[in-house]
Every structure is written in structure tokens, then in C-alpha cells.
Specification:
The protein has 341 residues and is α/β, with parallel strands linked by helices. It is 44% helix and 17% strand. The structure holds pyridoxal-5'-phosphate (PLP).
């Protein structure tokens, strides 16, 4: 039995999404985002977020993050983020480029989360320096890169701090669906009601084959973003094909059903690993498990067809296992069986 736990990016697209794109190929549609699919995505988002929103589909999460931050941050601004944030570690300075040179201020914090006291200290350092950058934007990742989920209280503590310093708030929601399922909170409570200005709502990792949605809760930011989206070449003429993915993703709660399965499989995997006496390093709130394994055990499992990555930034002999919308429980049973054997 083989099982791919390398990433939620190695998964195929959900069949319903692929079929929706195929159906969207029929006939003509108005171009540049005024097609029926794009309009439906906006209307569906208004229901999901319980208010009118502006939406901008893009192909990648990196583009979404960079555009979102670019629309809120001047070239001389500071963007406060976690030290392990994808925008800091994995996007080759895209946020810095799209802002025209803003300064990312990475802040360490346990469990992949920004801690209010440490964040406040860095905000004050920038403010008091008067020459480093101006206070501009706070970036929160939900679900975090460490696979943990920030509670509503944790989000509120950070957004209150941001608001008291007049910062705009970006949420990297590449795995937002997993966080919504994990917390059982409403998407509105987790975003604009807590003060979030832009959410990058991920679909690719959770069943799409390349679509993320910028959901904007502040009109003047949407106005700037609409220019940046177009000017940077992220506004596709045949936008229906991006939007059709998102339309199917949001239809009939596919986004929640997919994330629920992924989260359940991660919990099942983590429980089995712990029962086998292994150390899962972090709380498994969503669909990512970090486990410490003897290297020879890891190599043996990998040689049997169980795929997962080394994760050295979390220490020696640490491996990351990511579940997804189509992870089979029997695959996890096989992995756990192989471990016991
Ligand atoms: C937390 C987080 N944000 C953003 C991204 C960016 O996604 P993309 O690879 O589509 O640019 C990823 C991808 O792994 C991610 O894990």
C-alpha cells in the first residue's frame, strides 16, 4: 500500500471541481471576472461571511498573500508576521516586491502562533525607532504553518493589538477551511468580526487544482487591490475557469466536507502514532502531524511506499505528515501496521 502524506499540494483535484471546470467550458462568458461563476462565488461568499464582500480569485496562495499585503502596505511600512510564516520563509520576497519594499518583521512564537506580548514588543521597537519603518500591517496564518489553529480568543488578542496600533490585518488562509472545521466557529467570527481586513481563502490544498480567493472586508482596500490584481497580471481574461473551481468548492459545503475528512484523518493518524509510543510534537488541530521517528524507521516506511517529508526546522528526526480530502483511512491503518511490525 502506498500513501502520500508529503503535502496537501501533492493531491489531485476533487472530481466535483474538475467536472465543474469542464462544464464551465460550455459556451461563451463575459471576460475578466464578470462571468456567471465569478458572480456566484461573490454571492456565495456573502452568505458564508454574512455580509457583502469583494472577491478576487488568483492562481496561487503566494500571489494572494503578496497582493493582499501590497494593497494595504506602503513601501515604507512594516509587516509583522510569525518567524515561520509562509510569506517570510517561502515566497522569495513576494510581499516585499508587491509593496515596493516594505519590511517584514518576523517574530518567533511557540506552536507557530504569534504571541501578543512578543508582537507588541516588536511593534513598539519599530514605532520607537522612528526610522525603521512605519507601522502598517499584521499578518496572521490560520491554520498556522505548524498545523495549529488559533482560537477565537487568540485571534482577538492579536487583532486588538493590531487595531490599537492602527495596523491593517491580513490572514493567510491557505488552510482556512481546516481551521473553520477545527474550531466550529463561523467564518465571519474568525475574520471581519475579529477585525481581519483581507483573507486569502485557500482552495488548492483542499480540492482545487489551482485557485485561491482574496476575500476583502474593507472597501478602500478592495479598490486598491482591484488595480494591483489587474496591473500585476493576476486578472485572467477567462476568469470563469478559476471561478468555476471556487464555485464548486463553495457549493454544498464541499470546502468544509473536504477539510473535515482531512482533519479527521490527521487526528486518527496522530492517535495511532501516539499509541505506538511516538511523540507528535505539536497539537494536531487540523490536517498536519509532526512526529519524531528514528531515521531508520522513517527510511524503512518510505521504502515501503509511505511518503512524507523530513522537517528539520522543527528539530532532528522530525517528519511532517499531511492528510487531505482523499486520504484513505486504510492507508493510515497500513502505515500504523507497518510501524508496529
Ligand atoms: C500557509 C501557506 N500559505 C501560503 C501558501 C502558498 O501557496 P502557493 O504554493 O499556492 O503559492 C502555502 C503553500 O504551501 C502555505 O502553506
Amino acid at each position: 500500500m502506498s500513501l502520500d502524506l508529503r503535502s496537501d499540494n501533492t493531491l489531485p483535484a476533487h472530481p466535483a471541481i474538475l467536472e465543474a471546470v469542464s462544464r464551465a467550458n460550455a459556451g461563451t462568458q463575459t471576460s475578466y471576472g464578470s462571468d456567471e461563476f465569478s458572480l456566484r462565488v461573490r454571492a456565495r461568499c456573502a452568505e458564508i461571511f454574512e455580509r457583502d464582500v469583494d472577491v478576487f480569485p488568483v492562481l496561487t496562495g503566494s500571489a494572494g498573500n503578496a497582493l493582499a499585503i501590497g494593497a494595504m502596505t506602503p513601501p515604507w511600512g512594516a509587516v509583522f508576521c510569525h518567524a515561520d510564516a509562509h510569506i517570510h520563509r517561502d515566497e522569495l520576497g513576494a510581499a516585499e516586491m508587491f509593496t515596493g519594499g516594505a519590511k517584514l518583521m518576523p517574530i518567533p512564537g511557540a506552536l507557530g502562533k504569534l504571541e501578543p506580548d512578543a508582537t507588541r514588543a516588536v511593534i513598539e521597537e519599530v514605532r520607537d525607532s522612528r526610522r525603521m519603518a512605519t507601522l502598517s500591517t499584521l499578518s496572521i496564518t490560520q491554520t498556522t504553518e505548524a498545523g495549529t489553529v488559533c482560537s477565537l480568543e487568540e485571534i482577538h488578542a492579536l487583532t486588538a493589538l493590531a487595531k490599537s496600533n492602527n495596523l491593517r490585518i491580513h490572514m493567510d488562509g491557505a488552510r482556512f477551511a481546516n481551521a473553520v472545521v477545527s474550531l466550529g466557529s463561523s467564518p465571519a467570527d474568525l475574520t471581519w468580526r475579529a477585525g481581519v481586513d483581507i483573507l486569502v481563502f485557500g482552495a488548492t490544498k483542499n480540492g482545487g487544482f489551482g485557485a485561491e480567493l482574496l476575500v476583502v472586508f474593507r472597501k478602500e482596500v478592495a479598490e486598491t487591490l482591484s488595480i494591483l490584481w489587474h496591473r500585476s497580471g493576476h486578472r485572467p481574461s477567462k476568469a470563469r475557469f478559476l471561478a468555476a473551481q471556487l464555485d464548486a468548492y463553495l457549493h454544498d459545503d464541499l470546502w468544509l466536507r473536504n477539510a473535515r475528512h482531512a482533519n479527521e484523518m490527521a487526528a486518527y493518524l496522530a492517535q495511532g502514532l501516539r499509541a505506538a509510543g511516538l511523540n507528535t510534537l505539536l497539537p494536531v488541530d487540523a490536517n498536519i502531524v509532526f512526529v519524531r521517528l528514528p531515521p531508520h524507521t522513517a527510511r524503512h516506511l518510505q521504502s515501503m511506499g509511505f511518503q512524507f517529508y523530513d522537517w528539520p526546522i522543527f528539530g532532528p528526526d522530525v517528519y511532517r505528515m499531511v492528510t487531505g480530502f482523499n486520504t484513505p483511512q486504510e492507508g493510515i491503518d497500513s502505515l500504523l501496521g507497518a510501524l508496529r511490525a
